[in-house]
Amino acid sequence: MRWTTLEKIALGAFGFWFACGLIFTLGHIGPATVAAWPIPSWLHSFVALCLGSGDPILILLAFANTHLLAARHWGATVARRWALVIIVLSLVIETCGALTGFPFGVYSYTDKFGPVLGVVPMTIPLAWHVVLTNALFVVRTILPHLPRWGEAAGVGFIATLYDMILEPFATRVKDYWIWPADWQWHAGPVPVQNYIAWFVIGALLVFAFAPTSGNRSGRDPRPALILGATVVLFLAGILVA
Questions:
Q1: What is the tens place of the pLDDT at every residue in 117-128?
Q2: In terms of DSSP H, where are the helices of 169-221?
Q3: What is the pTM of this model?
């Protein structure tokens, strides 16, 4: 089955935004650099948008591509139900975590990762959907005959590895959230329970709610591409920080 025009546009937008982010990151391009460029004012505005909201927009584009992918594989109704479950539950879990320190450990979100809903940036539930959905498709492509519990464990493992790469980028490079080293909320080390929670929660959500493995479009490169592209940006940011 060929991709629809919407799918092609969404993937093209994601690829373009990823390329911009990678160029800006590796080139150390910041506001001061852009101010000296002899470019039209509208292009100045575009670059300012990339620099100020690049990561939230990338997450939004990743979510759009992931939802279109899920709709192609499972049908639109099932994909919407899965997205709603993951977004709502992850928002509840993250809100509980930010307010109580359970289950991830004590941390605090800043206002640098997009609009905040309560105490959690709205991009966070979208990111949970992106990671779990694409990890699920990767596991089902590589190991299509796993039992349900094995599939869930595989997704939990991928999600945990993803978070291990994300943490230094989000905390040390971007200050999207803060792990306190003391009572004054200085950035500190990530507690082990955070990674345990990522594995357990990711596995449980997939085990309890993931749609069946029905696949109407064969192998699809988008899950690996979306996860891989975001990981490349994390590593690039860490490398040049």
A1: 999 999 999 999
A2: 192-209
A3: 0.93
Q: What is d(CA 206, CA 113) in angstroms, rounded to the nearest whole number?
A: 26
Tens-digit pLDDT profile for residues 113-166: 999 999 999 999 999 999 999 999 999 999 988 999 999 999 999 999 999 999
Euclidean distance between the first and the last CA atom of the chain, given in angstroms as a whole number: 43
Q: Are 130 and 59 within 8 A, CB to CB?
A: yes
Residue with tokens 């590796």: 26
* pLDDT tens readout for residues 167-220: 999 999 999 999 986 544 444 688 999 999 999 999 999 999 999 866 554 689
The owner of tokens 């989000």 is: 170
Strands 108-109 and 177-178, sheet pairing: antiparallel
Q: Which of these, 68, 54, 55, 71, lies nearest to 8 by C-alpha position?
A: 68
Q: What phi and psi values does residue 22 have, to the nearest 5 degrees?
A: -65, -40
